[in-house]
Amino acid sequence: MSNAVSRQRGRMIIDNPVLGEAVLKIEKIPIASVPTGSEQDTSINLPTKCIVYDVWVDVTTAEATGTTKTLDVGLLSTETDGDADGFLDGVSVSALGVIDGKPTFTVGSSDSFYASTTLGAYLRDFVAGTDANGRNGVHSRKPLNKDGITASSVSYTAGSTDFAEFLGDIYILYSEVVST
Length: 180
What we know:
- By secondary structure, the protein is mainly beta.
- The protein is built from no helices and 15 strands.
- The chain has one domain (28-172).
- It has strands at 4-8, 11-16, 20-31, 40-45, 50-61, 70-75, 83-92, 97-100, 103-107, 112-117, 124-128, 137-141, 144-145, 153-158, 167-178.
């Protein structure tokens, strides 16, 4: 038994004779107009049988004007199990570059601890720490097994309604299980 690997239009397909075919994909979602501050449906739907490994934003035009220069990415909140910031929660889009979710580790007066994170709840386990001895908190990445989550529409939300410049692309790395 051997695995066959092939590439097709931005996909890597792994065909395992026992497990079937698994397709690794990177979905690029352009944000081609300045966000309005309300949740925007990208019209991209993730398959039911998929595992999402990572989500990031490539900021091609940084936001300079908006009061809150952040972006949330998730699954449409109006769908069952949807969470508008389930992938990225308040990532800064005020500078050019590739931005992913990560924790903020704070050096306190007594101890260092995880204070917050911009990685959304779908992709992490997180418990905030405190500036008390031994209470550092927990931050670990985890993939989202979407099987059992009804929501499928990828969405994004600007941090404030006064965005004037921001443009970029959302990237989603996931694998889809395809029955053969």
